[in-house]
Amino acid sequence: MEGAIVRMTTTSEGTPEARPATRRSTGALGRAWLRRAGRSRVHKIGFGLFGVGAAVLLSATPAMAQEITPAEFNGALLTSLWLIVAGCLVFLMQAGFALVEAGLTRAKNIGNIMAKNLADMAIGALAFWAVGFGFAFGTDGGSLIGTDTFFLSGMSESFADGDVLATPSFFFFQVVFAATAVTIASGAMAERTKFSAYLLFSLVMSGFIYPVVVHMFWHGDGILSDLAVGDARFSDFAGSSIVHSAGGWAALMGAVFLGPRLGKYGPDGTPRALPGHNVGYAVVGVFILWFGWFGFNGGSQLALSSTADANAIASAFVNTNISAAGGTVAAYLFTKVFFKKADLTMILNGALAGLVAITAQPVTPPSWLAAIVGFTAGILLVLSIIFLDKLHIDDPVGAISVHGVVGIFGTLVVPISDSGATLLNQLIGASVILAWGFLTSFVLWGLLKFTIGIRVTKEQEYAGLDKVDCGVEAYPEFIRSPEGQ
Q1: What is the model's pLDDT at position 154?
Q2: Model confidence over 131-140: pLDDT tens digits?
Q3: Among 206-210, 416-420, 475-479, which stretch is predicted with the lowest mean pLDDT?
Q4: What is the pLDDT of residue 474?
């Protein structure tokens, strides 16, 4: 896992220098990252065979293992524990996504929706464990994809050398990110997608499409990890584009291939409301996502070995909360002024928009700027949903707008608070992710459509996907028995 995280780069003379990173590192862990990312490809190739022999000798000779100070050991221990806790918070977000999607869709499809969200974590975890983590963080091959660490082979079970990034703690934190990227697409394709087709999409998204994006940007040797214009470099701290817009663009392509739900648009093209069955579910889901996002952004510091790390995590918590609040208020005011009513579904998505927007850089902005970022994201979210509806792109939960559109916005505003990034850098990086998401999901959805098919029949859609895929309705009390009981 050489150079697994983009933290350091080298000057033309070959000496390491600090750089504005997608995620930060300090203290003992920072020195560990320097050792991992600072070596050149020439060194890796030249000393490859020597390294194999050395690894055997070191593993057989405990006395030769690298020693670290008690302070470094304690820092690594705290970091490992923090990554596990943060990963648990992000894991909980799966329940939030499930409730939001279920609440904003119709009762006849809820069992299917819950099954999809459960499958995202189950299939996503297996695919990322088998190949995705290796593609994302394995030894670089061609600056595009990792070539080892499949099935976690060769992963250390100890952080005794201070290298937490080679331990199961780091894998666990990353696997829940992968599941998040997949789940984003579920809502945009709700109520009309074949379950089997969605499972195959989930497999490929978590095992290949998302990991390649991660390797390009968050791996020290990825082709775009040092994307630079002058001294500035692309920065996406916790993944407004790398995670959220990647999932959003896959969702957009899926929605386009599927087409709108039956009855969504009238004969003259006018959009019709297809109200969700339980907005209470959606509200609870948003609160769970809001809570889990503290782990998403705070955990992306990837270190808790110094007071600087602790301060960065605290800043991430504060700004995450403030931005979500700003997005919520903005969506409320916008819908109240222009629609003459406070649209609860828009307000909920406004909160999520604020969370997505600040994810690209939750540490460096002052809190007042985080509020502005969230407020702007809330307005952009509403406009985007209206625009996509006019294009007859049916997205039942607003996932494309929340994660795709707002994800790019969050990436582009990073230079306001991060002097190490420029608008051009951010635009190039976000465009690459958009192009990769469009291209790969276009190929994937096209293959699925013309092989197994991706959409249920009209009769099945009218009946509801609970009957089609699950065999059991989520609300059996709505169904009368043949005797009328």
Answers
A1: 82
A2: 999 999 999 8
A3: 475-479
A4: 87
Q: Which of 1.10.3430.10, 1.25.40.10, 3.40.50.970, 1.10.10.60 would CATH assign to domain 70-468? A: 1.10.3430.10
State residue 224's pLDDT score: 83
d(CA 168, CA 147): 18
Q: List Cα–Cα distances, 479 to 74, 192, 338, in angstroms.
A: 59, 21, 40
Q: Which of 39, 32, 125, 37 is nearest to 79 (CA)?
A: 32
With 0-12 / 13-18 / 19 or more C-beta atoms within 10 angstroms meaning exposed / middle / buried, residue 31 is: middle
For the chain, domain boundaries: 70-468
Distance CA 248, CA 364 (A): 25
User: Would you state the pLDDT for residue 176?
Assistant: 97
Token pair listed for 146: 């990792």
Residue 388 reports pLDDT greater than 50: yes
* pLDDT > 60? residue 15: no
As a whole number of angstroms, the distance between CA 112 and CA 465 comes to 6
- Tokens for 339, please give them: 């629609």
Asked whether the predicted pLDDT for residue 39 surpasses 80, the reply is: no
- Confidence tier at 235 by pLDDT (50, 70, 90): very high
Chain centroid to CA 339 = 32
Mean of pLDDT values over 164-178: 92
